Amino acid sequence: MSDKRSEISQLGEFGLIDHISENFNPKNASSVKGIGDDAAVITAGDDCLLISTDMLVEGIHFDLAYTPIQHLGYKAVAVNVSDIAAMNGVAEQITVSIALSNRFSVEAVDALYAGIKSACENYKVDLVGGDTTSSVSGLIISITVLGRAKKENITYRSGAKLNDIICVTGDLGAAFMGYRYLNARNKFTSAIRICNRILKSMNIW
């Protein structure tokens, strides 16, 4: 290992992915598409298998002070299914792996999986496996989704061309604005609590 230290922040998420993928080239004929798109593409008979994995980390991708854990379970599935849809495929199965700290109860896990089940029913995918382990830093959710598509119907990022029409669903920026609002409200509430404690300690309140 070199003594030189390079900061990951200099690369960014996609730069880091490109850096990692430089040393990995598919060797099997069945590996149609590897790292670098919304999902990997694997030959599977007359169709292609689409595989994608996403990880959600507490404090990075979500804050349970704002997000009901059942809603988080639904979201965790939805963000994975969207990767298959982005490549014009149909999601069929998921595996769910979670890491939990000891502040989570069995009831919290039940609520998380109730959200996962609701998303599975909505998107018509089957939960077929996963893993559980402990965590010292809150909740981590990792979901792998498997989908299927005809090879000729798969849409790749590289197929995008100048002047193509981009279509989206929902309200762009709504989630970010909601987060900003909740974050501001949480900071305001915390400030009020601190002021109240100070006033009480001074026998003013």
Please, could you describe this protein's structure?
This protein is α+β, with helices and mostly antiparallel strands and 205 residues long. It has 2 domains: 11-156, 60s Ribosomal Protein L30, Chain: A; 170-205. The chain has 4 helices and 6 strands; from the N terminus they run αβββαβαββα. It has helices at residues 12-21, 69-86, 106-123, 174-201; strands at residues 31-33, 40-44, 47-57, 90-100, 126-134, 140-150. It has a 6-stranded mixed beta sheet with strand order 1-2-3-6-4-5, with helices on one face. Helix 2 runs parallel beside helix 3. It is globular, with a radius of gyration of 21 Å. The termini are far apart.
Secondary structure topology:
Layout: H1 12-21, E1 31-33, E2 40-44, E3 47-57, H2 69-86, E4 90-100, H3 106-123, E5 126-134, E6 140-150, H4 174-201
Parallel strand pairs: 4-5
Antiparallel strand pairs: 1-2, 2-3, 3-6, 4-6
Helix pairs in contact: 2-3
Brief description of this entry?
The chain has helices at residues 12-21, 69-86, 106-123, 174-201; strands at 31-33, 40-44, 47-57, 90-100, 126-134, 140-150. The chain is of the alpha+beta class and 205 residues long.
Distinctive features:
60s Ribosomal Protein L30, Chain: A, about 25% strand, single chain, six-stranded mixed beta sheet, about 35% helix, 2 domains, alpha+beta, about 200 residues, 4 helices
Average per-residue pLDDT, rounded, comes to 84
Principal-axes shape call: globular
CATH architectural grouping of the largest domain:
2-Layer Sandwich
What structural class results from the helix and strand content?
alpha+beta
Radius of gyration: 21 Å
